[in-house]
Design brief:
single chain; about 180 residues; mainly beta; elongated
Length: about 180
């Protein structure tokens, strides 16, 4: 009989160990393969419709309504290329240009992929350079905001590490997101 200490324990997801990958057709297969310090806005909200049946004052009926998605905000990023700036310029020139992005959650070792948030049909909503100050070691990107049309959570390379019922949930206007291995 194995002792409790000998059992394999799946480590929890860590919110500080993630990577960002963005693919834009015609700009680059990987516009951004960057590290950011913060990621916020991976969210979806379902509008709930409430109906009341005549004569039934003590009961209401709840119906699922349309989904709304947040804006992903990535802060204090490092990348070696100017591809994000080129993507923003192309999005202004070609309003129909969309990208697919993934926020990849990594295990504590920084190698194994625990889960992927797949964002479909993204637009760059904001790209902000850092404050230029001679005594600071400024970063390449202060803030990047992405608007997206669909959000999917996929399990990683390993056992999924607790993704459970949320794995494979696909919602939004886009049927599929591609471009990543």
């Amino acid at each position: 009989m194995a002792s409790p200490a000998a059992e394999t324990v799946t480590p929890p997801f860590t919110g500080f160990n993630f990577a960002v990958e963005i693919a834009v057709p015609g700009v680059s297969q990987r516009v951004c393969h960057a590290a950011f310090s913060d990621c916020d806005g991976l969210e979806m909200t379902m509008e709930i419709k409430t109906l009341r049946e005549g004569g039934s004052n003590g009961r209401q009926i709840r119906l699922a309504g349309p989904l709304a998605f947040g804006l992903v905000t990535l802060r204090r990023g490092m990348t070696r290329s100017f591809d994000l700036w080129q993507w923003m310029a192309r999005a202004v020139a070609e309003p129909g240009l969309r990208a697919d992005a993934e926020i990849v959650l990594l295990a504590a070792d920084g190698q194994a992929v625990q889960a992927r948030f797949v964002l479909s049909r993204c637009l760059p909503a904001r790209l902000k350079a850092p404050t230029l100050h001679a005594r600071d070691g400024g970063v390449a990107i202060e803030e990047l905001q992405l608007a997206y049309e669909a959000l999917e959570l996929k399990p990683g390379d390993g056992d999924g590490g607790g993704v459970g019922a949320a794995a494979g949930l696909v919602v939004g206007a886009s049927a599929a997101a591609g471009g990543f291995a």
